[in-house]
Amino acid sequence: MKETIIKTDKLSKSFSVGGRQQHIIKNMDLEIYKGDFTVIMGSSGAGKSTLLYALSGMDKPSLGSIRYSGEEITKMNDDQLAVFRRKHCGFIFQQIHLVDSMSIMDNAISTGMLTGQKQKKLKEKAEKLFERVGISKEMTEKFPSQLSGGEAQRSAMVRAVINDPDVVFADEPTGALNSCGVKAVLDVLTDLNNNGQSVVMVTHDIKSARRANRIIYLQDGGIMGECDLGEYVSGDKVRHEKLRKFLQDMGW
Ligand SMILES: Nc1ncnc2c1ncn2[C@@H]1O[C@H](COP(=O)(O)OP(=O)(O)OP(=O)(O)O)[C@@H](O)[C@H]1O
Ligand SMILES: [Mg+2]
Ligand 1: does its nearest atom lie under 6 Å from the Cβ of 48? Predict the structure, then answer.
């Protein structure tokens, strides 16, 4: 039996646009399992980012609840939620958010510093992670404005995982990358996952989606279907075919 790490109960998220309510996530009951690499897919505007923001406590749902290992984060105030997120969640955003006035090294270690870890240790850890995603030690002194889109995205990834979060949320983390960069980022996520950390990733890319063991397909604010792919094995044609067929059935 898999252990549930995140559980939503009738989760709903609406936005008010021009005085009208737009219901983006509707009464969603969803469980994310510990140690899973879960991928969320669905057409543009289906609510994937909205769901990720809610699950990670970045944004509050309109209705319903979210529990992390039984603890209801939807009851926390903003300060409690900030502490909770720092401790348990890492987030790689669809839009890259790096602080422009800091080098990418300082960006990377800033969340670790907030949890009271030693700067020297954090820097050593960050250097290793930067190296894994193809960013040299010298380059880590650069500021975000001096980087290419792909370099910025890989730097944001290092910052997101520096605290060894229980759950890494990634919203199209490979959008700005070439195939080499895509592989580097996915390899880091796969490594973390093999280490026992849970990953929840949104992607439009079938090759990236193959890294998951479970695919959830969103439509009209709900779960239209899901697919159990089993453990990731590089180059497994049967898994790939299963995923392709599933997405075809979903009308992707
Ligand atoms: N802050 C907001 N205010 C109003 N509407 C919003 C807001 N954020 C998202 N939406 C709307 O909610 C819907 C879902 O947006 P969301 O960003 O979750 O889509 P998505 O599935 O991530 O799409 P994509 O694949 O293009 O990133 C869209 O119609 C969007 O316009
Ligand atoms: Mg999105």
Answer: yes
Q: Can you give the pLDDT of all 252 residues of the chain as single tens digits?
A: 899 999 999 999 999 989 999 999 999 999 999 999 999 999 999 999 999 999 999 999 999 999 999 899 999 999 999 999 988 999 998 778 899 999 999 999 998 898 889 999 999 999 999 998 899 999 999 999 999 888 888 999 999 999 999 999 999 998 878 888 889 889 999 999 999 999 999 999 999 999 999 999 999 999 999 999 999 998 899 999 999 999 999 999
Q: In angstroms, what is the span from residue 224 Cα to ligand 2's centroid?
A: 17
Q: In angstroms, what is the span from residue 203 Cα to ligand 2's centroid?
A: 9
H helices of the chain, in order, are: 48-55, 78-88, 104-114, 119-132, 149-161, 179-194, 206-209, 237-249
95 Cβ inside 6 Å of ligand 1: no
